[in-house]
Design a protein that fits this description.
The structure is a single chain. With 241 residues, the protein is α/β, with parallel strands linked by helices. The protein has eight helices and ten strands. The chain has a single domain, classed as 3-Layer(aba) Sandwich (Rossmann fold). An eight-stranded mixed beta sheet has the order 1-2-4-3-5-6-7-10, sandwiched between helices. The protein has a two-stranded antiparallel sheet with strand order 8-9. Helix 5 links the parallel strand 5 and strand 6. The longest helix has 18 residues.
Amino acid sequence: MTDPELSQSFVQSSAIAPGRAIWELAPPQASPSTAVIFLDAEIYLQSVNVVECIRQLSLDSTLPNFTTFFVSNHGQAARSVDFVCNPEYAAFLTQDLIPDILQRHESIDPQQLILVGLSLSGLAALHASLLYPDWFQATICQSPSMWWKNEAFLERITPATKRHGKYWISVGDQETEEDVDHSSANLHQQTSQLDSCRRTADKMKEFGYRVRFEIFSGGHDGPSWSEDLLRALPWALSQPE
């Protein structure tokens, strides 16, 4: 978190009191039209090399001018509450965080917001974007923990409407472990990440969602997600399909 181009602030919230710390990476150009919101800031900034990915993509003149925000996960205990389809966390994103972002940059189009998460925060990103479809033009879910509660999220998927954006769901070809205890999060994973993500993508497609399902070469780790981002972000920033 020591990059000189990262500025830290705090977004107050009654939904998940007291709120969450956020970091913004200075946009390469003034007056950005798009905001990319990363959950799990600590993982993205420390393990995924996301700043270098963004700097590399900012050189692409075909992409819209965008700025990036990183939302603190507030520690493992909070991750295990916020990111498991918690409606209060989704309310924080849409009722506290996004208004704060739009106030900071009046040039940002409220219809051009992209939400990004990985692992448990990938589940949270998908949950929030389905719950509040008006807010997100695209959602990137990297290795989302769709195994949560024996794939309970599948029952939350309802038919898509014109209000829903597009969805990138990716997972590694090495994410095949089953019957795993995640003791730090007090969660048990019965099915593999790969299979549960595939079933989620298939059901969303069946229900009319615009889904790009990608299986990348790698596992549940920062370098794999970094490589995946270099494909996912340009796709998300492009015009709706």
